[in-house]
Amino acid sequence: MGYTVACFDLDDCLIHEGFATAIICEDTKTILDYLKNLKSVDVKIALASHNEEALPILQELGISTYFDIVLGYYDESNKVSHLHKIAKALNVGASQIVFYDDVQVNIAATREHGFKGFLVNYVTGVKLEEVISRFK
Fold it and tell me: What was the pLDDT predicted at 131?
């Protein structure tokens, strides 16, 4: 396994927003449990979101403690600045981070900077198989 950080976008990857209360995607809890069990081999879990309410949403859903780092701030660019800050905070290189997002422009930009990006279906959110295949 060459990756040490699983990094996720929040909206339409781990949760669906736009409701009175955010709705957790079908596989989110299973994915977080799976990755938590890999922490014994030093896998970290990160969140890179343009949603400034990311941490309160995670707390409300009871899943904030799974994350080693949460960055929720808006800028007009893609998620590259988020991922560079995560890499620095966790002391890893770009090639060690797998990033899941539902926006193609974010995936393309992060790949240009050496991160491994995977496009997520915004209807379903991240699926367990997509994580297991990269973190066996």
Answer: 94
